[in-house]
Amino acid sequence: MARVTTNYRCTECGWSSIKWVGRCGECQAWGTVVDQAETVGLASRSVTPVKISDARSARPITEIGAESVAHWPSGIAEFDRVLGGGIVPGAAILLSGEPGVGKSTLLLEVASRAAATGQRVLYVSAEESVSQVRLRAQRTNALQPTLYLAAETDLATILGQIDQVDPQLVIVDSVQTVSSSMSDGLAGGPSQVKEVASTLIRVSKDRNLPVLLVGHVTKDGSIAGPRLLEHLVDVVLQFEGDRQTALRFVRAHKNRFGPTDEVGCFEMTGDGIAEVADPSGLFLSRARLPVSGTCVTIAVEGRRALPVEVQALIVKSGAPQPRRVVNGVDGSRVAMLLAVLERRAGMKLSEVDVYVSTVGGIRVTEPGADLAIALAIASAFADKAFPITQAAVGEISLAGEVRSASSAKQRITEARRLGFTTFIDSEAVHLREALRQAFASSTVERVDVPQF
């Protein structure tokens, strides 16, 4: 006889424990360890082999033709850039983002552009009524006769809508609010999300039908629900942006049909969302005169080079522990650069408050921005401004060496196109030499040039 034992398993990563714990010991997720009864015994079921037909038999890889994946454009160039050229038939795409960032507005625009080409699009709203979606579509001028709306939260009803409409594109907003009668638990739970996503993806593959799923995020910015959801879909997109500003970004964290290093730029307006084809001037301040504590770097996002202005502010600290506040850059990277500046360049930064931020809300994480961050901090420390036509790109090591960044030729070309005449990069082999070059080209003298 088989015996039934109680086992506790994490719904995120599958880690098991003989007793219940509040936090998973493998993925460190809270509240994901649940009671799961497992049947342990000698009895086991054997799997009967299936006879394979000639059409499905395995063939040598050299005899299989290489068929290119066909993309069809969505009508939004920035969205297609991130996807790798457009939407692939039969692809399952997951779009995640914080509440209120504009996910529904973006996908409604995608649905409208696709419907404008004559394709039937089914937009399933599980969070809003059809009248609410219709009002937003009227405001954003997204009304199309081949765009079908349905407000459903039951998976079986959604599948019935797909059979009735027979669309070429399906959008479900959102996957965490849809439930299935074939699974236990409330909508948004791990079991429900797995069942709903697996069924929709299976329908997508069987019908060669692209499906766009909206996913909620947790407090730390990760996609809510089980990690299996990210493995099931073909593309995982992240919709980023501060609700206090109009600028939005779409990044690909996973893409089976294209690159994952592209970024799409959008701007939220009163008439909906508009794509920004040339965002070169969005991340630069409008100051006409040089200001201390600023430096421009040329960041590369995919195949696009973007000028980003880094600003730094240094204030005398009155607290035992000086503050380190960053926005748009990596805090640990800034802490390392502060240590390098103090040790290799002789700047006493351990007794001052340091604030570092980027202009326009963009987030720069690549090491190529190290030199611009260091120069901005040095400019704020010396209270001496650099020319507005100066840019800097380079990675800084703990020894103070300036290393070259990737795509150097593309960065220089973009800098020249935007009017930057002075470009400080890895030719300055050490941070002290880069500081000398930067301050030597300074035109606004408020204090003596520091000796590095």
UniProtKB/TrEMBL annotation:
Entry annotated with the keyword DNA-binding: yes
Domain of life per record: Bacteria
Sequence positions that bind ATP: G97, E98, P99, G100, V101, G102, K103, S104
Keywords annotated in UniProt: ATP-binding, DNA damage, DNA repair, DNA-binding, Hydrolase, Metal-binding, Nucleotide-binding, Stress response, Zinc, Zinc-finger
Domain notes: The middle region has homology to RecA with ATPase motifs including the RadA KNRFG motif, while the C-terminus is homologous to Lon protease.
Gene3D superfamilies: 3.30.230.10, P-loop containing nucleotide triphosphate hydrolases
Species of the source: Conyzicola lurida
Pfam families according to UniProt: AAA_25 (PF13481), Zn_ribbon_LapB (PF18073)
GO process annotations (BP): recombinational repair
UniProt similarity note: Belongs to the RecA family. RadA subfamily.
Entry function: DNA-dependent ATPase involved in processing of recombination intermediates, plays a role in repairing DNA breaks. Stimulates the branch migration of RecA-mediated strand transfer reactions, allowing the 3' invading strand to extend heteroduplex DNA faster. Binds ssDNA in the presence of ADP but not other nucleotides, has ATPase activity that is stimulated by ssDNA and various branched DNA structures, but inhibited by SSB. Does not have RecA's homology-searching function. Plays a role in repairing double-strand DNA breaks, probably involving stabilizing or processing branched DNA or blocked replication forks.
UniProt name for this protein: DNA repair protein RadA
Residue ranges constituting the RecA family profile domain according to the UniProt record: 68-217
Lineage: Bacteria, Bacillati, Actinomycetota, Actinomycetes, Micrococcales
PANTHER family: DNA REPAIR PROTEIN RADA, DNA REPAIR PROTEIN RADA-LIKE PROTEIN
Gene encoding the protein: radA
